[in-house]
Amino acid sequence: MKISKIINNNIISSLDVKNQEVIIMGRGLGFGKKVGSDVDETKIEKVFRMDSLGDTRQFENLLNDVPIEIVKLVTNIINNAKRQIPAPLQNSIYLTLIDHINYVRDRQRQNIQFHNPLLYDIRRLYKIEYKIGEEAVAQINQALGTDIPKDEAASIALHFINARLGKELPETINIAKIIPNIIKIIQYSFNIEINEDIPETEYFLASVKLCAQRVVGGEMLSPQDNSIEQLIRDRYKKSYSCVTRIAEYIKKEYSIEISSGEMTDLTMQIERIRNGADVKK
Question: Where in the chain is the domain with CATH 1.10.1790.10?
Fold first, then answer.
């Protein structure tokens, strides 16, 4: 491999065997080197591959300003996350999380406090990602000598949710807002309390998450056969009425029309949960 760009003493870029640009990290990799020199492969600690050329350029600019200690710290955090999240993560997680944690460090140096209003909802709805966020906060505080509060676990979790779903962060935030409001509408409509801490409820919550993700992402379920949809509406009138209220809320807040296929599917999910053993009446 040849050096195609020297970002700093510890970060360079090169072309891999597929002639695709990669960013390589290693202590002293770029020190005293010139473009066209051979990469000292004994010093390679991490090879980054971004999802697009635009991300690659942003990543290069970011790495030029961020200490290598933070880059290594984030790499360890992401490696830990990959062992726990049963789905691939977009490579852009390196870009967004390094930028975020560098900003968090600077913010704490200025004694700027931050409260994440989604803390409670992320903690209860995205338990794996939130746990990773908690572990990340502990790693950051130990490595950087900071005292980052627990709210930061939710912010870090959002980046992993975003990387798993392949969404832009504003979309991920909207999803995190929609889910608890759907649950509130259901609970209010039937005067029930959905117990989110028991295994029987997990399927329902997963269904609500998928619904919110499809709605925000514009990839809603297609309409079903009209006769089947009409049958479901007639048979489960109360659950369908609840879904109508949910659709009205989403249209009002996000200007999104829910498809009839999505409404039919959600009606069935609500019918199951309100008549099941996993609620308190």
Answer: 68-166, 170-280
In this prediction, residues 49-71 reach a mean pLDDT of: 90
CA distance 271 to 274: 5
pTM comes to: 0.78
Whether residue 13 contacts residue 49, with contact meaning beta carbons closer than 8 Å, is answered with no
Q: Domain spanning 68-166 has what CATH number?
A: 1.10.1790.10
Cβ-contact 38, 2 below 8 angstroms: yes
pLDDT tens-digit map of 211-268: 888 888 888 877 767 788 888 889 999 999 999 999 999 999 989 899 888 899 899 8
Superfamily of domain 3-48: CAT RNA-binding domain (2.30.24.10)
Question: What CATH number should be reported for the domain whose range is 170-280?
Answer: 1.10.1790.10
Q: Per this entry, what is the length of the chain?
A: 281
